[in-house]
Design brief:
By secondary structure, the chain is of the alpha+beta class. It folds into two domains: 218 residues, 2-Layer Sandwich (PmbA/TldD fold), CATH 3.30.2290.10; 222 residues, no CATH class. 23% of the residues lie in helices and 37% in strands. The chain contains nine helices and 19 strands. The strands form four sheets. Strands 3-2-1-4-5-6 form a six-stranded antiparallel sheet. It has a five-stranded mixed β-barrel with strand order 7-14-15-16-19. It has a five-stranded mixed sheet with strand order 10-9-8-13-18, with helices on one face. Strand 1 and strand 2 form a beta hairpin. Helix 1 packs across helix 2 and helix 3 packs parallel to helix 4. It is globular. The termini are far apart. 41% of the residues are buried. The model has no long low-confidence stretch (mean pLDDT 96). Pfam families: PmbA_TldD_1st, PmbA_TldD_2nd, PmbA_TldD_3rd.
Length: 447
């Protein structure tokens, strides 16, 4: 994998090529990494893969017009050809009054925070093989499990760098390690499948293979013999496996681009969406966080922010283009790949834990459902209407009882946010996390 110095040297070279080709401004992002993965099936190693990749995305401006190209050939000739092609494309593009580089006074300067994103471990192929086999074996050892969908382990390391013609240049690297298993319970037409996984920046923070595998097996066995459910309005609990998806809908609705286009069901940047006391936080500085960073995709400083404070929105999330279109200031939430202009997104996002335990929330529910899987993408971003396929478990007389599958839940995101109650069982397992939540009065249709 390229060092930070080498990655930044490549970016400097292609920016110089863009300027020589006639670009009035340009920025470039480098994304590269290496990974080793092992997949197993029924006690045998099925596949071992080692991959290395590196790409540069170049965005050039010709006055008020811009274009983006991507390349993986870093030779001087390839860079010069890509830069010339990008400038020609930009000159032929439609004018854009809002896109552009950040002014120098907005660029991140203090990049010294140690976020501890790389554990520095060499890839351990024998260790990954053993971990993958042990994870699958633990899952297959759970009573009721009849077959395997496979298991695996992976170690990876990646580097991202960004440079602009107006003086920003920085890079960051991080490691990632993961374990997973998927198994099947039952036979014939009465089979169920589920999985479990663990992913962390540092190998030392991973759950054990036995823990991950056993959880996969227990989840799968618990899904056997689903019960019928009577349709109606009832409380719906979202297990942490799926509750974080609700935050995804919130973030999409408050992105500056959606607001500028008029394609969001929200129109008030200080709306009281949730009950008092509820908070949603974005923390790019969390040590070992899955998406921790000191600068965003446009070179602005990434800072912690309360997205929702005391139940109320604190404003939109904006990159430079959407901020200019809305006449507001960018918020340092630009995200960038190699194949297009910056978008908008969060770093380490979470819904703060509530005061009630998960068990208390279930006990208070009386009769309802708790969901562990959502299916489909039936969410209307313009109206907030929400309809998803789902599976999970019945809650009867305040206790989790029988599994349910092939049900449909429906509501409207505004109403859902307003009636949302978080439990206290928040854990930081992913880039976006939420505890168990309960939403009262959703419509549930039985399968």
């Amino acid at each position: 994998m390229l060092s930070h110095a080498d990655a930044l040297a490549h970016l400097d070279q292609i920016l110089n090529a863009a300027t020589a080709a006639g670009a009035t401004d340009a920025d470039a992002v480098f994304v590269g990494g290496e990974a080793v993965s092992v997949s197993v099936l029924k006690g045998d190693v099925e596949d071992i893969t080692r991959s290395e990749d590196a790409e540069i995305g170049l965005r050039v401006f010709a006055g008020d017009r811009n274009a983006t190209v991507a390349l993986s050939d870093f030779s001087r000739a390839a860079m010069e050809e890509a830069a010339s092609r990008a400038v020609a494309m930009a000159r032929a593009a439609t004018a854009d009054d809002y896109a552009g580089l950040a002014s120098r006074d907005l660029l991140a300067e203090d990049l010294s925070a140690d976020l501890d994103l790389d554990d520095g471990r060499d890839f351990d192929l024998p260790g990954l093989q053993q971990a993958a086999l042990s994870t699958e074996a633990a899952a297959l050892g759970v009573t009721g499990i009849t077959n395997s969908g496979g298991g695996g382990a992976q170690s990876a390391r990646s580097t991202t760098a960004l440079a602009t013609t107006n003086g920003f240049a920085a890079a960051r690297s991080g490691s990632n390690h993961a374990l997973y298993a998927s198994v099947i319970a039952g036979t014939g037409t009465k089979m169920e499948r589920d999985y479990a996984q663990s992913s962390q920046r540092h190998m030392a923070d991973l759950e054990s293979a036995e823990t991950v595998g056993r959880r996969a097996g227990e989840r799968t066995a618990a899904r056997m013999d689903p019960a019928a459910i009577k349709s109606g309005r009832m409380p719906v609990l979202f297990d942490p496996r799926v509750s974080a998806s609700l935050l995804g809908h919130l973030i999409a609705a408050i992105s500056g681009a959606a607001i500028a286009r008029g394609t969001s069901f929200l129109d008030d940047p200080q709306a009281q969406l949730f009950a008092a006391g509820i908070e949603v936080l974005d923390d790019p500085h969390r040590p070992r966080g899955h998406r921790s960073r000191t600068f965003d995709g446009e070179g602005l400083p990434a800072r912690p922010r309360k997205i929702v404070e005391d139940g109320r929105l604190t404003g939109w999330l904006m990159n430079i283009a959407s901020a200019r279109q809305l006449g507001l200031a960018p918020t340092g939430h630009a995200v960038r790949g190699v194949s297009g202009p910056p978008g908008t997104g969060t770093s380490n996002l979470h819904l703060a834990a509530g005061s009630k335990s998960r068990q208390d929330l279930i006990a208070e529910t009386g009769n309802g459902v708790i969901l562990t899987e959502l299916i489909g993408q039936g969410v209307n971003a313009v109206t907030g209407d929400y309809s998803r396929g789902a599976s999970g478990f019945l809650i009867e007389n305040g206790e989790i009882t029988r599994p349910v599958s092939e049900i449909t839940i429906a509501g409207n995101l505004k109403d859902m946010f307003a009636s949302l109650t978080p439990a206290s069982d928040l854990e930081f397992r992913h880039a976006t996390n939420a505890p168990t939540v309960r939403i009262d009065g959703m419509t549930v249709a039985g399968g």
